Amino acid sequence: GGAIADAQDDDASTPATVNVTAAQLRMEAVTGIGSAGHAIETSVGVLAARASGNGAGTFVAETDGVTLGTVAAVTVNRVGLDGGIADQADSDSLSGFQGGANGIASFSNGGNLVIAQAFTVPAGAHLLLQSAGTLDVNATVSTGTGSITLLATGDLRFGAAGKAITTGGTIDIESLAGSVTMAHGAVAQTNGGNIRVAAAADITVGLLDARTAQDRADGTLADQSAWGAVSIKAGGAVHDNALETAVDVYASQLRLHAGSSVASGAERLETEAIVLSARATTGGVFLSDATALE
Fold it and tell me: Which of 25, 134, 147, 236 matches a 20 to 30 Å C-alpha distance to 84?
């Protein structure tokens, strides 16, 4: 019913003391798991964590690669007074990585990170997932009114089932030294909040949807001026997924900046925006807006 705390004040140390080493780890607490500057250091294969109290934070630092997924109930032998043993287990499986409402869920790792299980951070809580290697989003990560930040030193990849969704915050997606690739079907979606996608190399756009929930549900442009703005900045090229013609970006304002080209004559980037600004340093800009630009 309380917190899980790190006994070592060594987050800035290299290396920090690892608190838990296991194939799979599940952590549940009410008032918090770790804290800012005092993360729980782990070396595990699969992780699930949840802090459920209002304002509670979850802070975990993984030493190498990990999958955020589902960990089943852990069963141990409970030794009785008579010397006998009986099974003792948590009540059920635990999935995802969550802080409490109005809190934060902050995860960093020293290797590659895979999101294999959908999870939702409660209303008001923010989500930070940071990888020193690659980051693969293969399921839906969502928040209520909180914002989402996904950072990777290497490539940041959304599979076809990968989604980042917030109903009241913004979305920030960046690869510091690689590419951002969104498969056809991948989505970054807000409720009128801004979306930023940046990469040192190329960006392949899936669906960046900054519409209001009402306009999205109604399929209209009635309140387009209230949609969020979208920024796409690539050190290399910006690509559209091949052989699809659906709108890739919904925004009130759209900013595109590429070190080489933005899309191509054969595969244009489909947009729906009021105001658009685009620059390609060494190549062309190929766009198709669904209605009309100002």
Answer: 25
